[in-house]
Amino acid sequence: MAAPYQQIVEDIRRRIAEGELAPGDRVPSTRQIAMKWGVALATAAKALAALSHEGLVEARPRSGTVVADRGHRRRPAGEHGLTRERIVAAAMEIADAEGLGALSMRSVAARLGVSTMSTYRYVGGKDDLVMLMADAAYGEAAWPETPPEGWRARFELVARLLWQVHRRHPWLAHITPLNRPLALPNLMAHGERLLAALDGLGLDPVTMLNLQILVYSHVQGLAANLEHEAQAQAATGVSDQEWVDAQVGAMDLRRLPTFAKVLAGLPSEGYDLDLDEFFEFGLQPLLDGVEALIARDRRDDAPA
C-alpha cells in the first residue's frame, strides 16, 4: 500500500488529469489536506512538494497553491546553478502561498528540483533559512534617494514600507518578537531611519526607542492577522463576514445596549474591517501622539 503522502499525490494528480482541477484552480492547502486525510501537516506539505516537483502545481503569493498552466509547467531545474539566493527565493514563495508550516528544506528542494542534501551546502537548516528569508523580505522596501522632509513624513514612509513588506509576506509577523528583536541588517536599516527621523527633536533616548518599537508593533500587530485570516477561511470555507454574522446572531443584544445601538447605526453595507484601511486609521493617531510628545518636551525645555 502506498504511503499516505503518495495517496494524496495520486488523488490530486487524478483530479488534475480528469479536469476536476483546472489550471489556476486552487488546490487544497496543507491544513485542508491534513484535515481531510487525517495526516500531519508535514505529510500534507510533503504531498504538495511532490506535486510541485512534478510541475503540476505552483505556489502563488496571496493565492495559495494552484494548478500550474499546462503550457508553462516548469521542469525541475537540477542542481546546476543552485545558489543561496535561489533557495531563499523558493522558500519565500512557499511561505507566501502556504505559510511557514509548509516550509521545510525538503519542500524547498522539491520546488527547485534538487536533492534535499544539496540545499544544506548553501543554508545551515530551516532556522537559518527563515532568517535569510526575513532579511531578504525587509530588503525589498526601497528607501528613496531623496526622502521626504520632516520627521512625520519620514515616519509615515517607514511605517508604510514595513506594512507593504508584511502584506506581501504575512509569515514575517510571526518570527520577529518585540522583546527579542532580530539583528537582521535590512530590518535594522528601517529602525535606523525611524530613529534618524526623531533625532534632534529633543526626545530622550528611551522615548525614541519606545516610539520606534511602537511603530513596528502597529505594523506587526495587524500583520499577524493576515495569515490567520487566510488559514481560517481555507480551513472552514467561511468568509470573515459570514463568521461575524454568525457570531452577532448568537449574541443577546438585550444585554449589550451600546453595542446594539452602534450596530443599528451602521450604514446599509455594514462594517467591513479592511486591514489596509485600518493600518492607515491607526497610523494617524499614533503619529498625532508622537507630535504631542515632541511639543510637550519642547514646552518643558523652554526657558521660564
TrEMBL record:
Residues 81-141 form the HTH tetR-type domain. The keyword Transcription applies. GO terms for biological process: negative regulation of DNA-templated transcription. Residues 104-123 bind DNA. GO terms for molecular function: DNA binding; DNA-binding transcription factor activity. Residues 2-70 form the HTH gntR-type domain. This is DNA-binding transcriptional regulator YhcF (GntR family). It comes from Thermomonospora cellulosilytica. The lineage of its organism: Bacteria, Bacillati, Actinomycetota, Actinomycetes, Streptosporangiales.
